[in-house]
Amino acid sequence: MAVQLMTIGDSFAEGRGDPLPDGTFRGWVPQLADALGIPADAVVNLGSYGATTQDVVDHQLARALSADAPLYGVTVGGNDLVSRDFDAQRFRYNLRHILTGLTLRGARVFTITWPDIPGKLPGLSDDKRRALRARFAEANDYMTKLTAELGVLAYDMVDTPVTRDPAMWAPDGMHPSPEGHRTIAAGIAALLG
């Protein structure tokens, strides 16, 4: 069966925080597919733990493009943003490269803005938390402008009240809980209409 939904990105796409008994993860991707009526065998999820925007460019984008899917989801960037060697120029270039490559195919493309991960991470000093929040805010400003320019749909993870609900998040503060993944799937399904 031809691929109808292709997702690329990091552990947010992979489904971390929503474990299955066999040690894999369910996450929002299959739940979104269910909501859209896309059969499981027409979904490919390349999301992988720890992936950065550079990893997606180097290891996922070509495979995603070769699938020629009508719908693509991209959730990546959080690992870049919390990295000690964050390079804003490379980060922005990679995001533009990924999203442009997918939209040039004429597919529908969606992504997310980043929630307040710095507010959830344990063990940060006040100064480090402030600095990371500023970095996330700049990234979200860039993503908002980029998605508007390219016609990419963006699910808002910044100003949606439910994203501030502790029940939405796994104990690590980085990944959605099972309830969070369900909520994200429903939100993206509504965004896609």
UniProtKB/TrEMBL annotation:
It comes from the Bacteria. CDD domains: SGNH_hydrolase_like_1. Coiled coil: none annotated. SUPFAM superfamilies: SGNH hydrolase. Pfam families: Lipase_GDSL_2 (PF13472). This is Lysophospholipase L1-like esterase. Residues 8-182 form the SGNH hydrolase-type esterase domain. It comes from Thermocatellispora tengchongensis. InterPro entries: GDSL_Rv0518-like, SGNH_hydro, SGNH_hydro_sf.
